[in-house]
Design goal:
The chain is globular. It has one helix at 80-86, and strands at residues 2-5, 20-23, 31-35, 41-43, 48-49, 55-56, 59-60, 69-74. It is mainly beta. Helix content is 8%, strand content 32%. 24% of the residues are buried. The strands form three sheets. It has a three-stranded mixed beta sheet, with no helix packed on it. The chain has a three-stranded antiparallel beta sheet with strand order 2-3-4. The N and C termini lie far apart (29 Å). It has one domain (2-86). Bound molecules: zinc ion. Zinc ion binds next to loops. Zinc ion (ZN) is lined by residues 36, 38, 40, 61, 63, 66, 68.
Length: 87
Amino acid sequence: MCITIFHPADGGYDPRPHRWLADRCPGQPDTAIVKCSNGHLIVLDQHKIAEDGMVTPKVACPKPGCGFDEHIQLALWYDRVDGIRAL
Ligand SMILES: [Zn+2]
């Protein structure tokens, strides 16, 4: 099963779970910060994000007791410039 993580369509900070924001460092591949089902922030700097938004490997939430451990796909990853603006 794969969970779809949504782009913050309203362009602002979105406190709901299953949202992503792009994170870009010069000279490095774009990465993202996502929220798990329980609203915890997870930085995907150890993951690979394909152009279609598929994240590998599976994403596990580091928060003790959370239990989020899923394959995820970032919706509208190709449009991530807007996600960076939203930060
Ligand atoms: Zn979590």
